[in-house]
């Protein structure tokens, strides 16, 4: 599968292998990792949850959007869910195109669209507490402590 959610560590090379094409002169990757400090707070670990079937559909949608904008592009995206420790890989995006500029642009487009439309939620655990951050753009907070049924937009 070119677009997937996984509970297992992501094999970066296997994501890259999905976009190899003879016409490609460039393959770009984005590897999103768990950082130790966010807004000055020390993070111990994160927990990602998602509405998995919808998340995969949205990743596929992003792939289609990229194919419309960059017709020669091949895209693969894998996002991890569950507990992730500091430096763990959370997401890998690979894009191949005949020319590097398109590969860079399409890859950046992919990560921004993931944060906009894919139903993935993050809970941060710190030394002094924890909090559901909300959507990936961090523009939504969850007063009840986590995503509720109404937050699962289709």
TrEMBL record:
Record carries keyword Glycosyltransferase: no
A GO term, aspect molecular function: molybdopterin synthase activity
Keyword Transferase: yes
EC number(s) stated in the UniProt entry for this protein: 2.8.1.12
Catalysed reactions, as listed in the record: 2 [molybdopterin-synthase sulfur-carrier protein]-C-terminal-Gly-aminoethanethioate + cyclic pyranopterin phosphate + H2O = molybdopterin + 2 [molybdopterin-synthase sulfur-carrier protein]-C-terminal Gly-Gly + 2 H(+)
Position of the signal peptide: none
A matching Pfam family: MoaE
Record-linked SUPFAM superfamilies: Molybdopterin synthase subunit MoaE
InterPro entries associated with the record: MoaE_sf, Mopterin_biosynth_MoaE
Pathway(s) per entry: Cofactor biosynthesis; molybdopterin biosynthesis
Keywords from the UniProt entry: Molybdenum cofactor biosynthesis, Transferase
Any GO BP annotation: Mo-molybdopterin cofactor biosynthetic process
Subunit structure: Heterotetramer of 2 MoaD subunits and 2 MoaE subunits. Also stable as homodimer. The enzyme changes between these two forms during catalysis.
Function: Converts molybdopterin precursor Z into molybdopterin. This requires the incorporation of two sulfur atoms into precursor Z to generate a dithiolene group. The sulfur is provided by MoaD.
Family designation: Belongs to the MoaE family.
Name recorded for this polypeptide: Molybdopterin synthase catalytic subunit
Organism, scientific name: Bacillus canaveralius
């Amino acid at each position: 599968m070119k677009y997937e959610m996984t509970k297992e560590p992501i094999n970066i090379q296997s994501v890259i292998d999905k976009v190899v094409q003879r016409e490609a002169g460039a393959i770009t990757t984005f590897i999103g990792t768990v950082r130790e400090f966010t807004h000055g707070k020390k993070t111990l670990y994160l927990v990602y949850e998602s509405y998995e079937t919808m998340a995969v559909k949205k990743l596929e949608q992003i792939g289609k959007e990229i194919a419309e904008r960059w017709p020669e592009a091949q895209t693969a995206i894998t996002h991890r869910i569950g507990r992730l420790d500091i430096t763990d890989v959370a997401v890998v995006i690979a894009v191949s195109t005949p020319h590097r500029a398109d590969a860079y642009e399409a890859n950046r487009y992919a990560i921004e669209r993931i944060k906009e439309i894919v139903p993935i939620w993050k809970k941060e655990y710190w030394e002094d507490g924890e909090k559901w951050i909300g959507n990936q753009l961090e523009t939504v907070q969850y007063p009840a402590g986590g995503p509720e049924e109404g937050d699962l937009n289709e």
